[in-house]
Amino acid sequence: MKKVIPLLILFLHPLVSNAGGSSTPKTDADFARLPVYCLARHKKKGDPVQRKMWKKKLGSGFLHLHHYCYALHYMNKSHNVSNKKANRDALGAALKEIGYVERRTSEQFYLRPEMAYKKGTIYERLGNHSAAMKEYLRGIALNPRVPALYSALSDLYKKAGDNKEAMNVLKQGLRYKPNSKSLNKRLIRLKN
User: Fold this and answer.
1) Over the stretch 152-184, which tens digit does the pLDDT of each residue have?
2) Is pTM beyond 0.90 here?
3) Architecture of domain 111-192
């Protein structure tokens, strides 16, 4: 029995440890780097009034929201690791957490466009530009009024050397958000 316990610890250690620290936000500093709904969802630290308000706004998806918050926390932690493998592991864990929420919520879930944007940025950081593009397009299909999705997609086209398509994406976004500073700035830069 004594030999089994150390083996169990060795086996379980990679499952409970991760590259950037805890997978769950715990400290005030952790929560300060996350959207306010993450703190509202936290059972111990969250304000009951805020929890009720976000639960009403997000509907049944609120139940699974903490997994999205874990994903965002992993993304934050990935910025603090210099080891490439640890960085990829943290980003991979973030993708899994977002996938968890996607499997348990409908396409109409309020945060779906934001989740598509975050997945796109993760895929970009992992060097998978085609998957990133797919996520940005999916996010636009879910809600065409999110300028960040157009900006990210346009930037991807620009990186690929397709300035014409980058401009088309920006123009499409400006049809929905004509006063978007980020889209207008990018369009001016591409024209010059």
Assistant:
1) 999 999 999 999 999 999 999 999 999 999 999
2) no
3) Alpha Horseshoe (1.25)
